[in-house]
Amino acid sequence: MNIESKWLEDFLALAEVRNFSLAAEKRNVTQPAFSRRIKALEQTVGAELIDRSKTPVALTPSGRLFRMTARTLINQIMDGVGQLSDLSKLGGNNVRVAAAHSLATSLVPSIQLELLAGKHKPVLSVEAIDVDEAIEELQEGGCDLLLAFDDELLRLPPYQSLQIGQAELLPVCACDSAGKPLYRIATNKEVPWLAYSPSSYMGRQVEAVRDQVNLQPVFLSSMTDLLKSLVLQGLGIAWLPDYAIKHELESGKVAIVGDDSLRLPITYYAYRYQARLHPAGEQVWQALRQHADLKLS
């Protein structure tokens, strides 16, 4: 089997932008030549990788699997070249991270200083997206690392997982000028509820206690920071992770409402494939491991 590395890079570019014209421009070739190279790759691997019937084009099931293989092969090639020429390509020392919104804003800054001290000086390229979309990014080979919550499938081969920390989802609301909660949870009175989208990870956790409280949804979002902003405006209660509201709790801007049974434990992890990452990616993984050891010790 004779697969050219430029075909792999072509395929990864197309998988990212989902458009032949844009991908060809990104790869600095004409669209006809680009299309021929993608076709040659498909013929070589013996499978259709691109579903051309859709707009934008999509990866076939074989294409999604091959995207992981292509990224691994490119990583290994560039790692070897980098060791010989003291250069690391694949975006230099760029490390692509997909992360749940709340983890991106709270966890990533906490490890940035540790990364500056390392040999390879990785540059994190962080995409903060919905948890389920972030998981799909890892499964389709769209990122080097994933920061997300507990997922049983991702803790099994061919993935590696690293428990980064534990937290709680806390039912909170804003406080008045006297420092008292604006709302109280009671069974005989509806409370305005700033809810996570039911299909989101956080939304599924809150559903576990949904029948214990009398809530009236007034807003839906999968973004913790957005719900937090509305809580601070006094528009209702929301279940927010403790790490996202630490300062607000300490300053008395928000208060926990309800009894302890409404506090929901959550665990968050870093995930990757078992295949070796490029040197900068491995350094980020080790920084996460050290961070986890400190948090959980």
Automatic annotation (TrEMBL):
Pfam families from the UniProt entry: HTH_1, LysR_substrate
Is Cytoplasm tagged as a keyword?
A: no
Q: Which UniProt keywords apply?
A: DNA-binding, Transcription, Transcription regulation
| The organism's place on the tree of life at top rank | Bacteria
Q: Does Transcription appear among the keywords?
A: yes
Tell me which CDD domains the record gives.
PBP2_LTTR_substrate
Where is the HTH lysR-type domain positioned along the sequence? 3-60
The entry sums up its family as follows:
Belongs to the LysR transcriptional regulatory family.
Write the protein's name. Answer: LysR substrate-binding domain-containing protein
